[in-house]
Amino acid sequence: MKIVADENMPYVEALFADLGEVVMVDGRTLTQAQVKDADVLLVRSVTKVNKSLLDGCDRLKFVGSATIGMDHLDLDYLKQRGIFCTNAPGCNAVAVGEYVFNAMLELARRFHSPLKGKTVGIVGAGNTGTALQKCLEAYGVKTLLNDPLLEQSGDDREFVSLDELVERCDVISLHVPLTRDGEHPTHYLFDKARLNALAEDTWLLNCCRGEVIDNRALIEVKQQRSDLKLVLDVWEGEPLPLPELVPLVEIATPHIAGYSLEGKARGTFMLYQALMAQLGKQVDKSLSSLLPPLWSHQLSPLSVPDEKALLCLVRLVYDLRDDDELFRQRFQNDKGFDLMRKNHKHRREFSALMLANTAGSDVDWLFELGFSGVGL
Ligand SMILES: NC(=O)C1=CN([C@@H]2O[C@H](COP(=O)(O)OP(=O)(O)OC[C@H]3O[C@@H](n4cnc5c(N)ncnc54)[C@H](O)[C@@H]3O)[C@@H](O)[C@H]2O)C=CC1
Ligand SMILES: O=C(O)C(=O)[C@H](O)COP(=O)(O)O
Fold first, then answer.
1. What does the record give under GO molecular function (predicted)?
2. Whose CA is nearest to atom 29 of ligand 1?
3. Cα 267 to ligand 2 centre (Å)
4. How far does residue 28's CA lie from ligand 2's centre (Å)?
């Protein structure tokens, strides 16, 4: 069996080498010739899997994407060809939730405007939106949710319309798939009119897909409105963001919100499980045996952290300012965006940090936030 896999997918050798020949490729520039004799294709979001890539790949029986988003896969074509296709829903939800929470704490500190006390609107309340909601609620921040599809499906959380969310929220974070059809398309969901409708001093964060915001309109609006604060991890036209947009953004990163080591590993592992099921084989490897152990350091908070101390704790796990700084230096270099993603130093999730000696102090909410506790 020949398995062609994106080189940015960790643990492929460890999980798939028993099953056949593994060939690692650059997913962005993958060609038909490289996939021609593959039985299994493992991709990430940068590979468009469609007729022009797969025409003539007669042996291909399995396509797996180690991502949540599926907008790069031509599902109708794959179905028509009878090629089994799967993704990895939820694999990097915690990573995205923690990234966004982290970014909000950074904005709060930078603009002397505490996160506690604000109302945060979450547009799209699926895996990543819910992971963010969990962090915010652990910290005691009020959230409003907008998700017409979940609302219609009977999800028992409370939902508001997008107009109401925009009107009532101090902070808005986007967590929708990129869709162009159906009753609730998300392409340019934040167009010029909606951007203009944002309340004064709104913080707008986008970690889902660049095209959910009209980026040219965003430049025009932001040039008129210095009160708006932006965090963008995703960009229209990746890997070449509009160069005028980057300096207008407070925190700018190259589509790495989901890049925790745990998140990426879960993505590969879910594809391994799916392939084993397709082959009728027993899963004989475990995710925990692949991941490095939790950090051996244990931290003992002596008192309940205030927002500044919480940010220090969060920065200890992942200092978002490093990626922002590097991105500004490199995004215009040849392949700068993709190289930064390829060489991204995997961050751990909050759970990698153990908090000890907390008995008696009122810090249970830190465990709700995701940190591990000794003996928990
Ligand atoms: N920056 C990054 O590294 C990452 C980006 N993503 C992106 O984020 C998207 C969301 O990820 P998940 O939360 O895991 O997906 P999900 O499928 O679990 O949740 C998406 C939610 O959005 C809702 N939705 C769809 N259209 C909507 C609309 N018009 N208005 C409001 N809600 C709407 C859906 O009902 C669903 O509940 C992915 O599709 C992917 O494109 C995901 C992971 C990492
Ligand atoms: O899961 C998704 O959807 C994502 O956006 C991925 O985290 C993006 O990472 P790559 O697949 O582009 O490496």
1. 4-phosphoerythronate dehydrogenase activity; NAD binding; protein dimerization activity
2. 184
3. 10
4. 12
Torsion of CA 207, 104, 348, 96, to 10 degrees: -20
Q: Which residues pair with 174 in a beta bridge?
A: 123, 206
* Closest-approaching ligand to the CA atom of 175: 1
Strand partners, 145: 122, 159
Mutate which of 8, 45, 68, 94 for ligand 1 pocket (most atoms within 8 A of beta carbon):
68
Gap from CA of 105 to ligand 1 centroid (Å): 22
Q: Per CATH, which fold does 2-87+260-289 belong to?
A: Rossmann fold (3.40.50)
Active site residues: 209, 238, 255
pLDDT value of position 88: 98
Q: How far apart are the first and last CA of the chain?
A: 43
354-355, strands of its sheet edge to edge? 298-299, 354-355, 372-373
Q: Is the pLDDT of residue 302 over 60?
A: yes
Rg of the chain taking only CA atoms, in angstroms: 21
- Domains of the chain by residue range: 2-87+260-289, 92-252
* pLDDT tens track for 148-192: 999 999 999 999 999 999 999 999 999 999 999 999 999 999 999
Same CATH fold assignment for domains 2-87+260-289 and 92-252: yes
Q: Is the CB of 245 under 6 A from ligand 2?
A: no
Average pLDDT, the chain: 95
Model pLDDT for residues 224-278, shown as the tens digit of each residue: 999 999 999 999 999 999 999 999 999 999 999 999 999 999 999 999 999 999 9
Range 92-252 has CATH code 3.40.50.620: no
Closest ligand 2 atom number to CA of residue 9: 13
Q: For residue 235, what are its two tokens?
A: 């960009």
pTM: 0.95
- Report yes or no for ipTM above 0.95: yes
Q: Would you state the structure tokens that stand for residue 155, as one six-digit string?
A: 């999800």
* Pocket mutation for ligand 1, best pick of 128, 160, 173 (most atoms within 8 Å of C-beta): 128
